[in-house]
């Protein structure tokens, strides 16, 4: 069945000084899929996500979400550096509830929404704690919940686990997958870790060196929930090998 794309990028051009990162770039992203962006260092992965999220301006081109601009929809963004992302003077609970204040949601409703979200996650945090009392992983979990509290139409994750230790990273990936399976929110992640990119994704957006083009956009047809066994799944490894081939070809160019 034909499904209208959720995000349409048309004629996108972006330069930094003399460097052209995107030149008349086009892309369609399907609704409700988890999409990993992967490509050589400095090819423009974060730039693409920031352009789509409206955090940096396009030089020219148009980015629409079912025909609407980013200002007309709700979205969540999780930064790599969780240390600077949370308000240090607010408890975890208040950090999570914070975006709802802008939507003029009552205190009672805000508390109910946080409660509902907390139940979806495996939260082993005292939500009365302040950021300095929490581990890095706990802080990043709070950042993710804060991004989700607005029930975003689209969620942006810029290397969200790269500052965490390995054990925490594995647990966060699985939490992220669980939330995705429950909410079906269109999700875009930039990851430098090919295992992670493929493990989480419904599709992997493989970019070339700048000015970036889409080299391939393969679907990852591996059943969810994925777990440690997935790493031995032949289809998972086939896609991973394919992504690695493309990546190495691009890096050598
Ligand atoms: N604000 C900026 N001003 C000038 N140049 C920038 C700016 N942001 C990014 N760049 C440059 O644009 C290019 C693409 O950057 P971007 O961070 O999007 O790449 P990336 O693929 O995410 O990189 P990495 O793999 O290193 O994380 C890089 O050469 C970077 O130095």
What's the quick description here?
One of its GO terms (molecular function) is ATP binding. This protein is 37% helix and 21% strand.
Looking at how many chains there are and whether they match, the oligomeric state comes to single chain
**Spans of at least 5 consecutive residues with low confidence:** none
Silhouette: globular
User: How many domains is the backbone divided into?
Assistant: 1
| The CATH architecture | 3-Layer(aba) Sandwich
The beta-strand count equals 9
Biggest sheet statistics: 6 strands, mixed
* Order of secondary-structure elements: EEEHEEHHHHEHEHEEH
Q: How large is the share of residues in beta strands?
A: 15-25%
Highest-level CATH class: Alpha Beta
For the record, give the distance between the C-alpha atoms at the N and C termini, rounded to a whole number: 38 Å
CATH topology: Rossmann fold
Mean pLDDT: 93
List its salient traits.
253 residues, alpha/beta, Rossmann fold, 6-stranded mixed β-sheet, 3-stranded antiparallel β-sheet, 8 helices, 9 strands, 37% helix, globular, ATP binding, AAA+_ATPase, ATP-binding
Notes on the protein architecture:
The structure is a single chain. With 253 residues, the protein is α/β, with parallel strands linked by helices. The protein has a single domain (5-21, 34-42, 51-252), classed as P-loop containing nucleotide triphosphate hydrolases (Rossmann fold). 37% of the residues lie in helices and 21% in strands. It is built from 8 helices and 9 strands. The strands form 2 sheets. It has a 6-stranded mixed beta sheet with strand order 5-6-7-3-8-9, with helices on both faces. The protein has a 3-stranded antiparallel beta sheet with strand order 2-1-4, with helices on one face. A hairpin with a 2-residue loop joins strand 1 and strand 2 (19-29). The protein is globular. The structure holds adenosine-5'-triphosphate. InterPro entries: AAA+_ATPase, ABC_SmlMolc_Importer, ABC_transporter-like_ATP-bd, P-loop_NTPase. This is ABC transporter-like protein. It comes from Celeribacter indicus.
């Amino acid at each position: 069945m034909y499904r209208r794309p959720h995000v349409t990028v048309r004629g996108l051009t972006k330069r930094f000084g003399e460097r052209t990162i995107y030149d008349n770039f086009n892309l369609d992203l399907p609704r409700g899929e988890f999409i990993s962006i992967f490509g050589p260092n400095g090819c423009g992965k974060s730039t693409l996500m920031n352009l789509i999220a409206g955090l940096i301006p396009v030089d020219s081109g148009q980015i629409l979400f079912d025909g609407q601009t980013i200002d007309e929809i709700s979205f969540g963004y999780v930064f790599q550096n969780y240390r600077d992302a949370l308000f240090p003077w607010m408890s975890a609970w208040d950090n999570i509830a914070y975006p709802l204040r802008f939507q003029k949601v009552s205190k009672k409703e805000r508390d109910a929404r946080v409660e509902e979200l907390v139940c979806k996650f495996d939260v082993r945090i005292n939500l009365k704690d302040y950021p300095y009392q929490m581990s890095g992983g706990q802080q990043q979990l709070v950042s993710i919940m804060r991004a989700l509290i607005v029930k975003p139409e689209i969620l942006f994750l810029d290397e969200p686990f790269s500052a965490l230790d390995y054990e925490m990273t594995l647990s966060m990936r699985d939490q992220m997958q669980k939330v995705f399976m429950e909410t079906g929110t269109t999700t875009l992640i930039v990851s430098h870790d090919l295992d992670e990119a493929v493990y989480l994704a419904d599709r992997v957006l493989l970019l070339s060196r700048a000015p970036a083009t889409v080299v391939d956009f393969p679907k990852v047809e591996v059943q969810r929930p994925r777990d440690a066994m997935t790493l031995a799944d032949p289809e998972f490894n086939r896609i991973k090998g394919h992504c690695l081939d493309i990546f190495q070809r691009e890096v050598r160019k």
